[in-house]
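seq as requested:
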Amino acid sequence: MTHAIAAGRGFFVTGTDTGVGKTLVSTALVRALRARGIDAAGMKPVETGVGPAGPLDALALREAAGGADPLEDVCPERFALPAAPSVAAEEEGRTVDLGRIRAAFERLRARHACVIAEGAGGLLVPLAPGLDMADLARDLGLPLLVVTRAALGTINHTRLTLEAIAARGLALAGVVISHAGGPLSAADARNLEALRRLLGPRLVGEVPPLARGVPAPADAFALERLLALLG
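struct tokens:
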């Protein structure tokens, strides 16, 4: 069952794993909303594995939203080590500054109609001592949009993530299936059919296999249903 948004205006995009296509889905959703006249902003509260070129996920989100927002607001916390945020921060003798994230989010929300915030890794990835991505989604007041892979293993990973959301009493906006891994084998395709049936109305999008650099189409999402959640 999906939940109406009481406050927050936007979605928190999480994944069943790393590399499932969260940035692809997040940037596509920002573009789709803006194409419908909704002033949507993108945000990557924490990005790890940041090299000399900068926070690449955050830069893609900023570009999808028009490129005008300060990078400090789009990605307030950045770390070099490609690891869980708490681990990457510890490597630099730091901790993730939740106050800084909240302040950046509030600035984006003040300037835009809604904010699409992309998490790092999966829902239970540690963010700081005693906190994880689920706690950040709760703190920002955003319902969860779960991105799951299409390939083998997805049923278990998806069910575990949905059970964690329900156990914590978090709002679920829906699930988007991502074909980030490319075309499926016949067995994977049958497995995916079972996942679609399992999700039922919770399935709010499916991104097809795409060539590198090609953005996801707007019709990959059940946009009317997501707009209804935004109110």
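The domain at 10-230 is CATH 3.40.50.300 (Rossmann fold).
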